[in-house]
Batch of 2 targets.
Target 1
Amino acid sequence: MDTKRRRIMNDNINVIGAGLAGCECAYQIAKRGIKVNLFDMKPHKFSPAHKNNNLCELVCSNSFKAQKTDSAAGLLKEELRVLDSLILKCADKTSVPAGGALAVDREKFSELVTKEILNHPLINFKTQEITDIDYDDINIIATGPLTSDALANKISDLCEGFLSFFDAAAPIVTFESIDMDFAFWGSRYGKGDASSYLNCPLDEETYKFFYNELIGAQRAPVHGFDVLNPKVYEGCMPVEVAALRGIDTLRYGPMKPVGLKNPKEGKRSYAVVQLRRENKEGTLYNMVGFQTNLKFSEQTRVFGIVPALKNLEIVRYGVMHRNTFINSPKLLYPTYQFKTNQKLFFAGQITGTEGYIESVSSGFIAGINATKIFQNKSAVVFPKETVMGALANYISDENIKNFQPMGANLGILPNFEPEIKNKQLRHESFAKRSLSIIKT
């Protein structure tokens, strides 16, 4: 069919999936004056992990990680801010105190993104489950790691199968159920607002009892999950699985007491459970690093061993679910285009970009490149010296044979010649170089 004739018949771009990647993608396309059909099966149908009717529902955590640009997570956010990311604007407007991190009130964040998307005159939001793909149209698949079965089967055939892993979320508890006689306020190393985190200490005897109960607690069954040899994100490792690595694993991980002085005792505690504010009102707190797949009753019992949580009320239990991602190095260009059909794009965690802002980054790049293809222009490859470009390069690197999801980190950025030995100066130089490129 003639290109111009087809363009008259279909003068829009389709974005499938209205999560972080899909909403950013749709916004960037519409911002450039092109109509967008944005599809999502919610609220008609929900994935196993989603409950909220709004778009951009955050499942695992309300934290977008570090703010400072001398970290990869902070630098990636700043790159997106400079480029006018919708998600970053909404996150900044709905942020809650979280020390050196950007955390959001997840309900207000989702509501604001939904409002921005539904009110945009060029975005046509459709509540519809997509089960097939018209390869003649320009499509961006941003359905995430919990793509519905019908579409997942189509993508699996197209991509010669999926790779898969398991992901977990942490419990959210009420502030009023926390026993403040045993808890104290404070961010690690005194960074940020002292009210950002509540710390729940354990002495050595209590910790050892907690540990033994945790590793022996009953887990909820998950099809295909081998607890003794789990294939999970390291960043979302269930706390009970991590504990199997040894009795001190948690004390060097989510329960590390380093940088926290207990004012009630005048010294550092043996171990600490940190709670991070979940909403602006401070009525809900997230158990930091406590992703879990314990049965609900076991979560209340085992986590209640922590003295400050002996009366805990869990409003959202930790859950575990299957996540899937495609073999991107084999299938995608760094523009997030599908190699055998350059009108087809993928974005979000389904590409193997690990993390919230990483998903936003992929949606941003896929969105502007879909626009380029729509306008019969060449797609844009972001420079490897930026975190956005380095991530896109990593997930499309054909030299990677055993592909695993990757989050933002400075290790994927090209180093300096000659190498900068001082770590802090090197990190600051990464940020200066990246932002100078982005701003031009």
Target 2
Amino acid sequence: MSAQEVLEAHWDGDVPVRPIAIAQAMGIQVFKSTDLGCSGQISVLDGGEVELIFNDGEPLVRKRFTVAHEIGHFALGHLSESTRLFRDEVAAFSSKVRDPKEVQANRFAAQLLMPADALRLAIQQGGKTISQLAEMFRVSEVAMKFRLINLGMLRG
């Protein structure tokens, strides 16, 4: 399932996108922890329930991206009988990551948190800086810059 399909099915249209509400609407149980030892994880429990845990000790933009990234693992079908857990350290969110599933989950998270149409509308409504857009969508400036470059709205 693509980020666009998840947005169409579970997003209320408001910015910033609320990834925890989306996860819960998808039937994912979401928990926060201050002693997780990583940024986040998603797993399939023995009863088939899906559980997402994120590190509540991290900055807000990191927590939001982590939740969206973990939703990505679920929506993209990365969880299976043989792979029942994804545990993501901070390094998994770097632009230098090469693991295809982590790259896909990062791309999914960016698409979920910064929907292209909502981003275009925000830009059309007035000359906003990367910083202002990042604040509006509650993402890091680095994430916003990459998203704008990937959408062809900014030169890299």
